[in-house]
Amino acid sequence: MCFVAAERGKNSFWGYIYKQGEFIVGEYPLYLRDHNWMGRPDRLVVECLSQKAACRQTMRFACWQPLFTLLLCLFLSFFLPAIGWTKIQSGQCSSCHTMHDSQNGASMKIDSTPNVAGAAECNDCHSSARSSMLRLDCLGCHAQAVDGGDNIIADAPQIAHVGTDLAAGNYHHVFVDDSYGHNIHGFGNDIVAQDSDLQNTPPGYVADYDPSTAKYQPAYSGTAPQVMCAGTNGCHGDREKISQTQAMHATHHGDDSVLKFGSLDEASQGATVATSYRFLNKVHGAEDADWQATTGPTDHNEYKGIVYADRSTQDWADIESISQLCAECHGLFHASADIGGPSSPWIRHPTDILLPNSGEYAAYTSYDLDVPVGRVSITGSTASGTVTPGTDTVLCLSCHRAHGSPFSDMLRWDYTLISAGTTGAGAGNGCFVCHSNKDGV
Ligand code: HEC
Ligand code: HEC
Ligand code: HEC
Ligand code: HEC
Ligand code: HEC
Ligand code: HEC
After folding, report:
1. 332-370 confidence digits (pLDDT tens)
2. Is the Cβ atom of 244 under 6 angstroms away from ligand 3?
3. Whose CA is nearest to atom 34 of ligand 3?
C-alpha cells in the first residue's frame, strides 16, 4: 500500500509519501503526470521535481488498496479545492532563498550573473547576496536552460527556450533577430545586446502616458541599456520601483485565485501586483493554468479590453487593459488624438475599441489563438471559444506577442504573407481574421 498526502499547487502536488507506514520519500514537490488519475484511482503517477538525488527519478506508485485509495481520492477532491490557490506551492525555501549567502563559507548564489559595480538596484542581481535573499535572479528561474527544450521547469514558466512558445512568445526568437521582440537586459551581450535600430527607446513613447513617477529611462543599466523584466524600466511588477526585485515584492507567494478560472473575481483584480494579471501591475485578465503550454478553443488566457476612452494621459487608476500596459511605454499608439479616435478614419490602428458587429468584422466569431480579442468583463469558469463582434475588443496582442515571436515587429504571424486578395498561405490568417473580406477567399 502506498499513501500520498498532498497539498494542491497549480500543476504540482506537494507530497508526503509513505509506504506501509514507512516514510519513504519525504517532502518533495511532485508533478502529477497522469492527469486522468481521478478516473483511474488505482494508479497515481507522479514525478519528483526536487533536485535531491533520492528523489530525482520518476516514481510510479500503484495503490492497491481500493478502499484506502477511495478515501484518499475523496480527501483530495473535497478538501483540497478549499485551499486557496497561491503562486509558489512547492519547493524548500533553501532552493530559492539563502539566509546568509554562505554555506561552508561559500556563496549560495546559483546562476552566473557577474559582479559589476553599479547602483544599489543593479546589485539586486549583480552581487552574490541578492535582494529578497534570493539565490537566483529573474532569468535564473525563468531561463533555467537557455535554448533548452522545456517551456516550464519546476513550475516556473520559461521565457527563452526552443519548442512550444508560451502565451507571451519567447525571447529565444530575439536571439535570432533583434526585431523579433523586446531586447531584455540579462541574457548577456553575446546572446542579446541592445536593439540596433531602436536602441533602448520605446517607439511611440509619450511621458504623459507613462503613469510611473520616474518615467521610463532609456539610459538605465549603464553600459548596456536595455529594457528590464520588471520595475520602472520593465513591464512586470510595480513600475514605481526601479529595482526589479523590489518591484516584484510579495508576488510569488501571493494568492492569485481571483485571476484563475473557477474563482475569477474581476472586481478584486489589480489591487496589488500579486492580484494583477501575470504580475503586470493593475492589469486585469484570466490566467490559463499552464501559460498556454497547451491550447485549444477553450484553453487560453482571457485578456482585458476596454471600450475606447477619449484620453491623452494615463494614470495608475486608469490601467486595466493589457493594451494600456503596452501604452505605458508606447502611448502614441493608444492615445486618442494620436490614433485619430474616437472613430474611423483612424490615423493609427485602433486598440481598446469594440470590434464592430457589422461588415467584414461580424464574421469573426470563433476565437483564433493567433488573433486574440479582449473582453470588457472577465468572467466564466473556462476560457471562451467564441468571439462576439460588438462586445469584444481589439488589443495590441491581437497582432503582437509580448516577449518575442518568430516574425518581424514581434507580430503573431508573418505579415509578408498578408496580401490583398490572396488565396495563398496568408488567406484567413492575421489581419484577415478581422478584415475578412480583404483576402481572396
Ligand atoms: C520556487 C522558488 C521559491 C521558493 C521555494 C520559496 N520562495 Fe520565497 N520568494 C521567491 C521569490 C522569487 C521571491 C521574490 C519575489 C517576491 O517578493 O514575491 C520570494 C520572496 C519571499 C519573501 C518576501 C515577499 C513575501 O511574499 O513575503 C518571503 C518572506 C519569502 N519569499 C519566504 C519564503 C519561505 C519562508 C519559503 C519556504 C517555505 C520560500 N519563500 C520558498 C521564491 C521562492
Ligand atoms: C517598460 C516599457 C515597455 C513596455 C511596457 C512595452 N514595451 Fe515594447 N518596447 C520597449 C522598448 C524599450 C523597445 C525598443 C527596444 C527593444 O526592442 O528592446 C520596445 C519595442 C517594441 C516593439 C518593436 C520590437 C522590435 O524590435 O522591432 C514592439 C512591437 C513592441 N515593443 C510592442 C509592445 C507590446 C505589444 C507591449 C505590451 C504587451 C509593449 N511593447 C510594452 C519598451 C516597452
Ligand atoms: C534582474 C537582474 C539584473 C539587474 C537588476 C541588472 N542586471 Fe546587469 N545583467 C544581468 C544578467 C543576468 C547579465 C548577463 C550575465 C551574463 O552574461 O552571464 C547582466 C549583464 C550585465 C552587464 C554585462 C553586459 C551584458 O549585457 O552582458 C553589464 C555591464 C550589466 N549587466 C550592468 C548592469 C547595471 C549597470 C545594472 C543596474 C543599472 C544592471 N546590470 C542590473 C542581470 C541584471
Ligand atoms: C527563485 C525562482 C524565481 C525567481 C528568482 C523569480 N521567479 Fe518568477 N516565478 C517563479 C515560479 C516558480 C513561478 C510560477 C509560480 C506560479 O505561478 O505558480 C513564477 C512565476 C512568474 C510569473 C508568472 C506569474 C503568473 O501569473 O503566472 C512572472 C510574470 C514572473 N514569475 C516574473 C518574475 C520576475 C520579473 C522575476 C525577477 C524579479 C522573477 N519572476 C523571479 C520562480 C521565480
Ligand atoms: C482583432 C481584429 C483586427 C485585426 C487582427 C486587424 N484589424 Fe484592422 N481594424 C480592426 C477594427 C475593429 C478597425 C476599426 C473599424 C472601424 O472603426 O470601423 C480596423 C481598422 C483598420 C483599418 C482602417 C482604419 C480606418 O480608418 O477605418 C485598416 C487600414 C486596418 N484596420 C488594417 C489592418 C491590417 C493591415 C491588419 C493586419 C496587420 C489589421 N488591420 C488587423 C480590427 C482588426
Ligand atoms: C492590427 C494589428 C496591430 C495592432 C492592433 C497593434 N500593432 Fe503594433 N504593429 C503592427 C504592425 C503590422 C507593425 C509593423 C510596422 C507597421 O506596419 O506599421 C507594428 C509595429 C509596432 C511597433 C514597432 C514600431 C517601430 O517603429 O518599429 C511597436 C512598438 C508596436 N507596433 C506596438 C504596438 C502597441 C503598443 C499596440 C497597442 C497599443 C499595437 N502595436 C497594436 C500591428 C499592430
Report:
1. 999 999 999 889 999 999 999 999 999 999 999 999 999
2. yes
3. 221
Q: Which amino acid is at 293?
A: A
For residues 208-232, b (16+ Cβ closer than 10 Å) or e, as one string? ebbbbeebbebebbeeebbbbbbbb
List the domain boundaries for the chain.
Answer: 2-82
Global pTM value = 0.88
Bridge partner list, 413 = none
Our mutation pick for probing the ligand 3 site, out of 189, 194, 221, 233, counting the most ligand atoms within 8 A of Cβ, is 221
Contacts of 317 (CB under 8 A, 6+ apart): none
Is residue 350 in contact with ligand 5, taking CB distance under 6 Å?
Answer: yes
pLDDT of residue 86: 53
Q: Is 116 in the pocket of ligand 3 (CB under 6 A)?
A: yes
Ligand closest to the CA atom of residue 280: 4
List the residue whose alpha carbon is closest to atom 16 of ligand 3.
Answer: 188
* pLDDT tens digits along 370-426: 999 999 999 999 999 999 999 999 999 999 999 999 999 999 999 999 999 999 999
- Residues 352 and 342 sit within 8 Å (Cβ to Cβ): no
Distance, CA 372 to ligand 5 centroid (Å)?
A: 14
Say if ligand 4 is within 6 A of residue 349 CB: no
Mark out the alpha helices in 43-185 (DSSP H runs): 66-74, 93-96, 138-142, 172-176
Mean pLDDT, rounded, for 37-54: 35
265: Cβ–Cβ under 8 A, 6 or more apart, which residues?
258
Contact residues for 212 (Cβ-Cβ < 8 A; gap 6+): 232, 239, 240, 328
Tell me the CA–centroid distance for residue 293 and ligand 6, in Å.
Answer: 25
Mention every residue, 6+ apart, whose C-beta is less than 8 A from residue 439.
420, 421, 422, 423, 426, 427, 428, 432
Lowest mean pLDDT among 7-21, 107-121, 212-226, 285-299: 7-21
Q: Rounded to an integer, what distance in angstroms lies between the CA atom of residue 5 and that of residue 276?
A: 31
User: Is the CB of 289 within 6 Å of ligand 4?
Assistant: no
Q: For 387, phi and psi rounded to 5 degrees?
A: -110, 135
| Residue closest by Cα to atom 38 of ligand 4 | 245
